[in-house]
Amino acid sequence: xxxITALLSIGSALFIGAISPGPSFVMVAKTAxxxxxxxxxxxxxxxGLGGFVFAALSLLGxxxxxxxxxxxYLFLKIAGGLYLAYLGLKIWHGAKQALAMPTDGNVSTDxxxxxxxxxxxxxxxxxxxxxxxxxxxxxxxxxxxxxxxFSSAIVLLVFAIEAGWYSLFALALSSEAPRKQYLRYKxxxxxVAGGVMMVLGLKLATAAGR
Length: 210
Description:
By secondary structure, the chain is mostly helical. It has one domain. Helices cover 81% and strands 0% of the residues.
């Protein structure tokens, strides 16, 4: 019973974090609208995989390592922030490029699906602060001596929350109406999305030195 209560508490806390707008939110939205449903879902799965990795590393003590070696944490935050800023710059530069999308919403190949999944995972993994957040939630709600099966359930729960939420988001935005609106206002929307990504990335990178 204690483990079930802990799972529900952890799941609730992480779900609130997952639905909060951030770089992952922007990337899934952009991919779903521009590249179609399957690419959006692949990006969502990548987000889930990134969350899975961070959750597993947090349970294995990554947060302790990052706190014990500030230089490593600083490097990862700067590198992650610059990566997000780079993604934002790419979106910004492509704002005026024409985009043709068929009505079925799926325009891609297997390689682009893989690229979407990788982009989702790297976007999620670009912020090492996520590992600290996971570790803080785990420290608050985990039993004193969690079993291997319970720890496994935790990382699977993280994957389900991250991938599930972003999959629903991708499905909603890959429908016909949002895509038509995007095509109509593509330049402005890409400028906003790219600008948000750059600001978030630079904020992460510059905050690392404080």
